[in-house]
Amino acid sequence: MLSADDIHKLEESRDKILSLRDSGVRYCTVLRLLLNLLGLYTGDTDDGTLMEEALRESLNQEMFRPMPATRASVEALDKFVFDGGVLNGSSSDQHCVICLERMLSGDQVTCLPCSHMFHANCIEQWLRYGHICPLCRFKLPTDS
Protein backbone atom coordinates (compact mmCIF):
# COMPACT_ATOMS: atom_id res chain seq x y z
CA MET A 1 0.00 0.00 0.00
CA LEU A 2 1.29 3.47 -0.89
CA SER A 3 1.90 6.01 1.83
CA ALA A 4 0.59 9.55 1.66
CA ASP A 5 4.12 10.73 0.81
CA ASP A 6 4.36 8.24 -2.06
CA ILE A 7 1.01 9.37 -3.44
CA HIS A 8 2.06 13.01 -3.13
CA LYS A 9 5.33 12.30 -4.99
CA LEU A 10 3.44 10.44 -7.73
CA GLU A 11 1.03 13.36 -8.09
CA GLU A 12 3.95 15.80 -8.34
CA SER A 13 5.59 13.62 -11.00
CA ARG A 14 2.31 13.42 -12.93
CA ASP A 15 1.96 17.20 -12.79
CA LYS A 16 5.52 17.67 -14.08
CA ILE A 17 4.92 15.24 -16.95
CA LEU A 18 1.68 16.97 -17.88
CA SER A 19 3.44 20.32 -17.77
CA LEU A 20 6.17 19.02 -20.09
CA ARG A 21 3.52 17.64 -22.44
CA ASP A 22 1.71 20.98 -22.45
CA SER A 23 4.97 22.80 -23.17
CA GLY A 24 5.61 20.45 -26.09
CA VAL A 25 2.11 21.07 -27.46
CA ARG A 26 2.59 24.85 -27.15
CA TYR A 27 5.97 24.57 -28.87
CA CYS A 28 4.42 22.61 -31.76
CA THR A 29 1.54 25.09 -32.01
CA VAL A 30 3.94 28.03 -32.24
CA LEU A 31 5.98 26.14 -34.81
CA ARG A 32 2.84 25.44 -36.84
CA LEU A 33 1.88 29.14 -36.73
CA LEU A 34 5.36 30.19 -37.82
CA LEU A 35 5.30 27.75 -40.71
CA ASN A 36 1.88 29.04 -41.79
CA LEU A 37 3.17 32.62 -41.67
CA LEU A 38 6.20 31.56 -43.66
CA GLY A 39 3.92 29.99 -46.25
CA LEU A 40 1.85 33.18 -46.50
CA TYR A 41 4.96 35.31 -46.83
CA THR A 42 6.64 33.14 -49.45
CA GLY A 43 3.47 32.10 -51.26
CA ASP A 44 4.44 28.48 -50.69
CA THR A 45 1.35 26.33 -50.42
CA ASP A 46 2.98 23.36 -48.76
CA ASP A 47 0.99 20.15 -48.43
CA GLY A 48 2.20 19.62 -44.87
CA THR A 49 5.57 18.09 -45.76
CA LEU A 50 7.45 21.09 -44.41
CA MET A 51 5.43 20.94 -41.20
CA GLU A 52 6.09 17.23 -40.72
CA GLU A 53 9.80 17.70 -41.35
CA ALA A 54 10.02 20.58 -38.87
CA LEU A 55 8.14 18.63 -36.20
CA ARG A 56 10.29 15.54 -36.74
CA GLU A 57 13.43 17.67 -36.44
CA SER A 58 12.23 19.34 -33.24
CA LEU A 59 11.35 16.00 -31.65
CA ASN A 60 14.84 14.71 -32.36
CA GLN A 61 16.45 17.59 -30.47
CA GLU A 62 18.13 16.71 -27.19
CA MET A 63 15.67 18.74 -25.12
CA PHE A 64 13.16 15.94 -25.74
CA ARG A 65 15.63 13.05 -25.41
CA PRO A 66 17.97 13.25 -22.44
CA MET A 67 21.24 11.40 -23.03
CA PRO A 68 23.60 10.13 -20.34
CA ALA A 69 27.01 11.66 -19.80
CA THR A 70 29.95 9.53 -20.84
CA ARG A 71 31.40 7.26 -18.18
CA ALA A 72 34.84 8.86 -18.68
CA SER A 73 33.48 12.37 -18.06
CA VAL A 74 31.73 11.24 -14.87
CA GLU A 75 34.84 9.45 -13.61
CA ALA A 76 36.95 12.57 -14.31
CA LEU A 77 34.81 14.83 -12.09
CA ASP A 78 36.35 16.28 -8.92
CA LYS A 79 35.31 14.18 -5.93
CA PHE A 80 36.10 14.97 -2.33
CA VAL A 81 34.87 14.70 1.23
CA PHE A 82 32.78 17.65 2.38
CA ASP A 83 34.38 19.15 5.47
CA GLY A 84 31.52 21.44 6.44
CA GLY A 85 33.59 24.56 5.82
CA VAL A 86 33.18 27.47 3.44
CA LEU A 87 33.09 26.41 -0.22
CA ASN A 88 32.98 28.63 -3.28
CA GLY A 89 32.52 31.67 -1.06
CA SER A 90 29.34 30.41 0.60
CA SER A 91 28.67 29.13 4.08
CA SER A 92 28.72 25.51 5.15
CA ASP A 93 24.92 25.30 4.99
CA GLN A 94 25.00 23.73 1.51
CA HIS A 95 22.24 21.54 0.10
CA CYS A 96 22.27 19.01 -2.70
CA VAL A 97 19.59 20.22 -5.13
CA ILE A 98 18.96 16.68 -6.35
CA CYS A 99 17.97 15.06 -3.05
CA LEU A 100 17.37 18.41 -1.27
CA GLU A 101 19.28 17.23 1.80
CA ARG A 102 21.92 19.21 3.62
CA MET A 103 25.56 18.32 2.96
CA LEU A 104 27.09 17.15 6.19
CA SER A 105 30.72 17.02 7.16
CA GLY A 106 32.13 13.71 5.90
CA ASP A 107 29.71 13.38 2.95
CA GLN A 108 31.20 12.36 -0.39
CA VAL A 109 30.52 15.20 -2.86
CA THR A 110 31.23 15.73 -6.54
CA CYS A 111 31.88 19.03 -8.25
CA LEU A 112 30.94 19.55 -11.90
CA PRO A 113 33.12 21.71 -14.21
CA CYS A 114 30.58 24.52 -13.72
CA SER A 115 31.50 24.47 -9.97
CA HIS A 116 28.14 23.19 -8.75
CA MET A 117 28.38 20.54 -6.02
CA PHE A 118 26.14 17.59 -5.28
CA HIS A 119 26.23 14.45 -3.20
CA ALA A 120 28.41 12.03 -5.17
CA ASN A 121 25.71 9.33 -5.44
CA CYS A 122 23.02 11.83 -6.40
CA ILE A 123 24.92 13.39 -9.31
CA GLU A 124 26.20 10.02 -10.54
CA GLN A 125 22.63 8.74 -10.75
CA TRP A 126 21.53 12.00 -12.41
CA LEU A 127 24.25 11.75 -15.06
CA ARG A 128 23.25 8.16 -15.92
CA TYR A 129 20.09 9.62 -17.45
CA GLY A 130 21.06 13.12 -18.51
CA HIS A 131 24.26 15.01 -19.28
CA ILE A 132 23.16 18.46 -18.11
CA CYS A 133 23.84 20.15 -14.75
CA PRO A 134 20.53 20.38 -12.86
CA LEU A 135 21.31 23.97 -11.86
CA CYS A 136 22.84 25.78 -14.83
CA ARG A 137 22.39 23.33 -17.75
CA PHE A 138 26.15 22.97 -18.31
CA LYS A 139 26.57 20.07 -20.75
CA LEU A 140 28.90 17.17 -20.10
CA PRO A 141 30.04 15.04 -23.05
CA THR A 142 27.77 12.30 -24.41
CA ASP A 143 28.46 9.29 -26.63
CA SER A 144 26.61 10.79 -29.58
Describe the secondary structure blueprint for this structure.
Blueprint: H1 4-42, H2 49-59, H3 71-75, E1 78-81, E2 108-111, E3 117-119, H4 120-129
Antiparallel strand pairs: 1-2, 2-3
3D architecture notes:
By secondary structure, the chain is mainly alpha-helical. It has two domains: 4-59; 71-129, Zinc/RING finger domain, C3HC4 (zinc finger) (Herpes Virus-1), CATH 3.30.40. Helix content is 45%, strand content 8%. It is built from four helices and three strands, in the order H-H-H-E-E-E-H. The protein has helices at residues 4-42, 49-59, 71-75, 120-129, and strands at 78-81, 108-111, 117-119. Strands 1-2-3 form a three-stranded antiparallel β-sheet. A hairpin with a 5-residue loop joins strand 2 (108-111) and strand 3. Helix 1 (4-42) runs antiparallel to helix 2 (49-59). The longest helix has 39 residues, at 4-42. It is elongated and about 65 Å long. The chain starts with a helix and ends in a 15-residue tail after the last helix. 10% of the residues are buried.
